[in-house]
């Protein structure tokens, strides 16, 4: 997690569409853009650049 707890709390509420990679609100059943029903939570760890 990062150094801003308020931002971390907001990031945990974001779900990402596996098809079009758009951001969606927590609790939705399908993507707001394409209607795809398979969503994943946004990554919470910070990945280093290669």
Q: Which structural traits does this protein have?
A:
14% helix, 50 residues, alpha+beta
Describe, in short, the structure shown.
By secondary structure, this protein is α+β, with helices and mostly antiparallel strands. Helices cover 14% and strands 20% of the residues.
Percent range for β-strand residues: 15-25%
Mean pLDDT: 88
Strand order of the largest sheet: 2-1-3
Distance between the termini: 19 Å
3D shape: flat
Number of beta-strand segments: 3
User: What is the string of SSEs from the N terminus onward?
Assistant: HEEE
Number of domains: 1
Main β sheet profile: 3 strands, antiparallel
Radius of gyration: 12 Å
Q: Count of DSSP helices?
A: 1
Helix content: 10-25%
By secondary-structure content and strand pairing, the structural class works out as alpha+beta
The low-pLDDT segments are none
Give a structural overview.
By secondary structure, the chain is α+β, with helices and mostly antiparallel strands. The protein has one domain. The protein contains 1 helix and 3 strands. It has one helix at residues 5-11; strands spanning 14-17, 23-25, 39-41. A 3-stranded antiparallel beta sheet has the order 2-1-3, with no helix packed on it. The longest helix is centred in the first third of the chain and has 7 residues, at 5-11. The two termini are 19 Å apart.
């Amino acid at each position: 997690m990062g150094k801003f707890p308020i931002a971390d709390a907001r990031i945990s509420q974001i779900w990402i569409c596996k098809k079009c990679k758009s951001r969606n609100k927590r609790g939705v059943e399908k993507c707001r853009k394409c209607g795809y029903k398979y969503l994943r939570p946004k990554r919470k760890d910070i990945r280093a650049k290669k």
